[in-house]
Amino acid sequence: MTALFALATSLLWGLADFGGGLLTRRTPALTVVVASQSIAVAVLGAIVVATGGWSEAGPQLWFAVAAGLVGPVAMLAFYKALALGPMGVVSPLGSIGVAVPVGVGLVLGERPGLLQFAGILVAVAGICLAGGPQFRGAPVQRQAIVLTLVAAFGFGAVMALIAEASSTLTGLFLALFVQRVTNVAAGGAALCVSVRRGAPALPAEGFPWRSLPALAFVGLADVAANGTYSIAAQQGPVTVAAVLASLYPVVTAVAARGVLRERLRAVQAAGAGLALVGTVLLASG
Question: What is the per-residue DSSP string for 117-175?
Answer without folding.
Answer: HHHHHHHHHHHHHHT---SSSSPPPHHHHHHHHHHHHHHHHHHHHHHTS-SSHHHHHHH
